[in-house]
Amino acid sequence: MSHFTHNKEKDMSLQNKLKEINLNENETIVLTYAAGGDVVHAWDGYEEEVLQSSGLPDAVASLISNSGFKNDVIDDLRCADLLEDYPRDGSGFKTYISEVITENFWEMDFIERTTEQYDYKRGYCTLEATIGTTVGSVMAAPEHLFGGWKATINTKLGRLTLEG
User: Fold this and answer.
1) What angle do CA 142, 145, 151 make, to 5 degrees?
2) Residue 85 falls within a domain, yes or no?
């Protein structure tokens, strides 16, 4: 006899959770994707190593490049002229954005970097991407884009955080 307990809430998509709490589609929602790794912080370049091994640029690019997903990050990248050289045939846009994020990592205001130092040379580096949008924009996007993302919404009862 199995003692496995099924957690239905954990299996629900972010969109289903948002439907369940019945928010207005114009409500502001903040999406956060965090990734990290053990590092030797005594050496330069450890943040870039975590960035490349974490999948963060791909996760962000997949989300912000999705047509119909309204967000300030893609607009900020356009305004900074960082998206001028991508192929206009529509192919490779997501990959191009991922490369732009990787190459311009230090200029990306939406990515926070923190390092917990265990001792004089070792630690753990966390990178956290934060993207603001609306509930309606999240609901209009494909479900698979939100795996690994957390969503934070201010409600009349307080701040609510949901995992995608």
Assistant:
1) 105
2) yes
Euclidean distance between CA atoms 159 and 13, whole angstroms: 19
Rounded CA separation 17/153 (Å): 12
Better pLDDT: 86 or 95: 95
- 87 or 135: which carries more pLDDT confidence? 135
The answer to whether residue 104 is domain-embedded is: yes
Q: How far is CA 164 from CA 15, 68, 100, 155, in A?
A: 8, 19, 25, 18
Of 62, 71, 133, residue with least CA distance to 101: 62
- Asked if residue 6 is part of any domain, the answer here is no
Residue-level pLDDT at 21: 87
Residue 90 has pLDDT above 70, yes or no: no
Encoded tokens for 134:
């609306």
For residues 47 and 60, give the distance between their C-alpha atoms in angstroms, rounded to a whole number: 17
| Residues in contact with 44: Cβ distance below 8 Å, sequence separation at least 6, in sequence order | none
Domain around 61: 11-163
Whether residue 2 lies inside any domain: the answer is no
As a whole number of angstroms, the distance between CA 140 and CA 94 comes to: 18
Q: How many domains does the chain have?
A: 1
